[in-house]
Structures are given as structure tokens and as C-alpha cells.
Amino acid sequence: MTIKSTIKSTLSACVITAALTLPTMQSAQAGDEFMLAHAYPTDHIFHLASETFTDQLAKQGSTMSVDYHPGGDLGDWASIFEQSMEGVVPMSMSFGASEYDPRLDLSWLGYVVDNWDDARKVYGPNGKMTDVYNEIMDDLDLVVLGTIPTGFGSVAIRKGVDRIPTNFPVDAQGIKMRVPPVPIGIERFKNWGFTAVPMPFSELYTALQLGTVDGRSFGPSVEIWQMRDVLSAYILTRDYFEHAFWVVNKSWLEDLPADERAKVLAAADVTLNKIWDEAQAIDEGFLNKVRGAGIKVVELNPEQMNNAKQALYANEWPFMEGIVGPEIMTMMRDIAGIK
After folding, report:
1. Any transmembrane segments, and where (predicted)?
2. Residue 6 lies in a domain
3. Whole domain around residue 26: which residue ranges?
């Protein structure tokens, strides 16, 4: 597989600010404090993962300590991903920023798995995708410690919109749907008949408030709960299994003393297994909270679900094959049981 050798890296204002106040790359020494950051609030599973890792690192007897930054105080998830590439933030939990390698959109691919057991086999600890992701990340000077599951992503409609799309593409015509600013997000919702509006996550809540968009896509239950006061319906398309990358800067990790590196990796392994053991119950708990908040939760019937799947298999999957190549997509089809 050919890996892109030139990476465009235009630092955001947040990264520049961090670079002015921190070393360009944190040194890796025993006894050091190092940064772990993510862009989500403390009711997100990233927080549980971060606190568990911090506790486990201490239990491993590490002399290093974690300087923990939740809630996006170092920037949004794409900015934090870039800061980990640069080594400014050695460790982070983020989603795939495909501006640095378009193959990272593979993490958003639709309808690969449709249940938690299969999700763990594919994306969980020692899952089939770990080596694939690490091959992609290697050229970005990153190592994937593992993936953090947040649950199956679906579609939500804001308050003030009286349409609940379930039959694609007919029901979707004219609905402005926010998608992440990644090519596969735009492709998916165009295929389903929506007007796809790429938008950073940081702008989404205000856009729903103001009616700039009619709904949001790629939404696991935790995020629907967090935005419950501006949403009226949650349509369970379950079109992809959302999982974030827990990454560490490769140069930083390799520069650690061998015993400290082993403790970091051991603490990460324990954390990943704990998080995957608990993630499904957390996801289902937030879905129950969404229902309790008065948001209408809608299941697709078997015919509607099949139509949604077939549209992506026929259009999105060949689109992705043009990016990642036939070898990876043959593996993905085997995983999904697509002939």
C-alpha cells in the first residue's frame, strides 16, 4: 500500500498559541508530566477513559504524571489531532482528521457492523482494524493505542422541523443536514437525498438553534443528550459505529525509557478493555435519557434499513475504495458480509 509521504500541516490559531507557550515537542523523560487532551465534556466516555488511564498509569508504578485537558480547552478535535501529530500534545482522543490522510475517512465508513459484539471484534482491543489504522497513522508520526467506542451514530432533527425522514432518498429532499467536514460525510448524505452541509462540530449547536441546518448526522446517543434542548427527533439509522482514535505521538513514545513505555502501553491496554466492557451500557443509558427528555426516538423498519444500507454499499463503498484501495475494501466487505 502506498502511503502519502507529504503531509499538509497548517497550524490553527489554537495550535500556534500552544506552540508559543510550550516546547515544539514535549520531551519524554521519566518523571515528566505529559498532556492528554480531548475536546468533549466530562459526561463523555473520553473522560472515563482518560481518568481510568491516569489511575492505571499510577498503578503500573510509572514516575510520569498526566496533565489532563478535557472539554476542548486546547481546541476542537481536529486541532488536538494536529497537535498530537506535532508532538505538542503527546496523547489525545480524537476522530480521524482526513485532511492529513484521506484514508482516515475509513473510520466513518457506513454499515460495517450492526451490533456491539461484531464492533468489538472489528474495532476493539486487538481488533481487525488496529493494524490498518496504525499503517495509516505511521506517516503522521502517530501510534493508535486503540479505539474508544461511543456507539452507533444516527440522525437527529431540530425543534421546529416537522419532518421525520425514514425513507431515503424520498423523505430527505430539501432537508439541510449537518455533516462533519469530511468527504465521506458529504457523500453519504448526498446519496441519501439530503442537502449535506459540512460544518465543524464547534458550530453545530448554534446552527441548530438558529435554524441554519435542519438536523445533524453522525450522532451517537451521548451527543443527542448533550444537545437535547434543540432537538425533537432521533432517527436510529445506526449508519456507522462511532469510534475515536486514542493516539500517542510516535516519536514521543519511542523516546521514552523502555520501562516507562511499557507502563504506558500496559495502562492503555487495561483501560481499553475496561472501556469496551462498559461502553454499550453507557450508550444505552444515554439513549434512555434521550427518550426521557421527550425526544421522539424512531426506529427504521427492516425495509427502510435495507434501503439505507444498499444505497451506501452501492455508492459510498466504491467511493471509499477509490481512496483506500481494493485490498482494504475487500477486507471490509468480508467483515460486513457483502458479496
Report:
1. none
2. no
3. 13-151+242-283
What is the percent of the chain with per-residue pLDDT over 70, rounded to a whole number? 91
Answer yes or no: is 104 within a domain: yes
Rounded-to-integer distance, Cα 129 and Cα 119, Å: 10
DSSP classification of residue 101: -
Residue range 125-164, pLDDT digits in tens: 989 898 889 989 999 999 999 999 999 999 999 999 999 9
Number of domains in the chain: 2
pTM here?
Answer: 0.83
Do 260 and 128 share a domain, yes or no? yes
Domain co-membership, 251 together with 208 = no
Q: Do 320 and 210 share a structural domain?
A: yes
Is 2 part of a structural domain of the chain? no
DSSP state for residue 146 in the 8-state scheme: E
| CA–CA gap between residue 287 and residue 300 (Å, rounded) | 16
- The Cα–Cα gap between 143 and 132 comes to 11
* Grid-cell match 443536514, residue found: 177
Q: Which of 96, 90, 76 is nearest to 182 (CA)?
A: 96
- 320-333: per-residue pLDDT in tens? 999 999 999 998 99
Q: Are residues 59 and 128 in the same domain?
A: yes
Place of cell 489531532: 81
Contacts of 309 (CB under 8 A, 6+ apart): 110, 111
Q: With bands split at pLDDT 50, 70 and 90, how would you rate the model's confidence at 31? A: low
Closest CA to 89 of 61, 103, 69: 69
CATH of the domain at 298: 3.40.190.170
Tell me which residue of 295, 184, 279, 317 sits closest to 236, measured CA to CA.
295
